[in-house]
Amino acid sequence: MSFLGLNIAGSALETFQQAEDVTAQNIANVQTPGASRQIVNIGQLPPIDGVPGMPVGLEPGTQGTGILVSSIQRVHQDSYDALFRGASSSQNFYSAESGILSSLQSSFGEPANGINTAFAAFQTSIQTLANNPQGTAEEQGVLTSANGLVSAISSANAALQSSETQTQTQATTLIGTINSTIDQIAALNGQIRAATAIGDNPNTYKDQRDQLIDTLSTYLPTSTSIQADGSTLVTVDGQALVNDTEAYHLASPIVGTNPNGTPALQVDFVTPPNPTNPAAINITGGQLGGLLDTYNNKLIPYSNQLNDFANALATESDRISQAGYDSTGTAGAQLFSPVVTQLPISAGNIQVGILTPSEVPTAAATTAAGTLVQPLNLGNTTVDTTAQLNGNATLANAPPAGGIAGALTIKVDGITQTFNYSTNNTTADTVDDFINSFNAGHFGVTASYNATSQTVVFARDPNNIDLVHRAAMAAAGGTTTPDFTITDATSSAAQIQPGAPAVGLLDALGADNINGVDQNSRNAIGVTNGGDVTAMLQLFSNSYGVPALQTTSPTVIAAPGAVTILPPVASPTAFAQLNVGNVLTIDAGTAAQENVTITAVNRVTGSISFVAKNAHLVANYSITSAQTATLQQNYASLVAQMGQDASAATTGTTTQTSLASSINSVRQSTDGINIDEETQNLVKFQNAYGAAAHVITILSAMLNDAINLGSGTSF
């Protein structure tokens, strides 16, 4: 019974009061996001030592003086923060992508609507016209379906452009939120540092800061490092976002250009943390990372693919339409043309170039439609196309026994090519040999045998042209033409008499009257046979290069390896439509022919780079897009890629959401506030407080009695 006892009980009252206050704080913040559980660490006050010099056994020993709150501890495991923030960053990365890609997928309308349906309708209209080449309604059907296809392409392009704009807008808005968040973190750093310096425990500020960093990690991937003064260094891609009280703001995103020449949505600091050596920010996570990845690695490639598809569709369609004549004998026009003539055809720069049904090209130049080709047979005999030409008695003009040799010069699209022949070898031993060998030359003209008329027929065939021809034509700035000329310097100047020996191959084939004569709408137009529209049908089954590049390069490749080549001098922008990843066929028709993949595009110099496996020592070798897939397959690959990307984003969102939730559950089991546990603590501290109060009451009464001893007060 002493005043010391009152002090001890008083320290207990004060300690358990603080413990109750902390517990009440925990209970009050049970629903507060980011609030960590706080616990009271209770310790003993310094004791009173025994009195020196007292006899052994009589010293009082060490006397306790009570308890105190030694610290209010914030329960928080920083290691779980990094795990949670990483998962949360990934979750929001995929979520940002999923929202944009799912919306874009819907806009494309595949497979029920969209380009695929319009392309099928276009194919049907061509087939219908081929069945009736002179039908006005069928010609109108082609124009209607072509306009529908252009509309579908334009709609898909508009959806892509809208997605790009939406992505850029969202990124701009998000950066404003990011800058506001890092400002708050920097301010809390200052408060925490000041409180730590005076020995305080700024637990609430730390909770608020960690919650803001959690939020920031949903926007972009962050790393943190707690400094000795209590502040936290927050970085992205190794560069400081928050350093002590300094916040480094991000600038609004801009559309720049990658080294490969493609557009890129880029983000940098307004003022770089290291201005003497600034580094671009590589943001690979969070909502901002998802937006940047969607724009740069999804939308831009999709747009390039759609542009390439539109370009190839127009180029290959026009190559055939311009190789024919309409019903009036007028040379065929571009079925698809650019809206802005100075720019290449793309998904945003395409229209139907033919306005009226009568202008739809259906006919092709063919010697079967003229009178210049004569029957091969002599009298009423039937020609055996498998028999030797030399001395063949069934031919009106058979080559002599010694045979003939020479060359046919074929001119198509302004390109001159040569077919060397000799009736003493397999190139022209028989009619069949000639036809097979001639067609294998891919001259743009096809030879065939008409058994009824006993004639060899030469017809303009835009599908029978090789890559070398097309590259040479494009590099020279030439265009597709519907006419053709075949010249044989060895043949007679005019039709020779039946029975006379052939001097040249055209003599033997009954075609010496076409020698050097341009076959065109004046003398060889097959209006009724629909040769050109029939050729158009192959548009839907042939493999093409996408984009439809045909040109040459003057840059000699001396040895295999990484090379950079220039376009032809006459066409400095020939490579402008190419992108990294496009596959090209170079030096077609030679032993050095190979496919290469573009690794870089320089939009300033117009050059492209790739790795060559072979040397290409002769200048002006062909450069064409690799003929790897049909147009429909190419578009299907775009739709498939879009579907895969959207699915991956959806799956990633689900997976990372589950992971983040799981990590947070573990984190909350350690850091979080449990209402049941806190209620038990509150009861425990209340009981302790009540017991201490009861002790004080008893001690107070005892002291009062002791003080009043002998004063007459009765007990």
CA distance, first residue to last residue:
17 Å
Structural class: alpha+beta
Strand content: 15-25%
What is the tally of helical segments? 12
What is the strand arrangement across the widest sheet?
3-4-5-6
How is the biggest beta sheet arranged?
Answer: 4 strands, antiparallel
Contiguous low-pLDDT stretches (5 residues minimum) are: none
What is the radius of gyration computed over CA atoms, rounded to a whole number of angstroms? 44 Å
Shape type: rod-shaped
Averaging pLDDT over every residue, what do you get?
Answer: 90
Strand segment tally:
24
- Approximately how much helix is present in the residues? 40-55%
Task: Please write out the topology.
Layout: H1 3-28, E1 38-44, E2 67-74, H2 78-108, H3 115-131, H4 136-197, H5 203-219, E3 223-226, E4 232-236, E5 239-243, E6 246-247, E7 254-257, E8 263-266, H6 286-321, E9 336-337, E10 351-352, E11 364-365, E12 405-412, E13 415-422, H7 431-440, E14 443-450, E15 455-465, H8 467-475, E16 485-488, H9 505-508, E17 525-526, H10 531-537, E18 550-553, E19 561-565, E20 583-586, E21 594-597, E22 600-601, E23 608-612, E24 621-625, H11 631-671, H12 675-707
Antiparallel strand pairs: 1-2, 3-4, 4-5, 5-6, 7-8, 9-10, 11-17, 12-13, 12-16, 14-15, 18-24, 19-23, 20-21, 20-24, 22-23
Helix pairs in contact: 1-12, 2-4, 2-5, 2-6, 2-11, 3-4, 3-10, 4-5, 4-6, 6-11
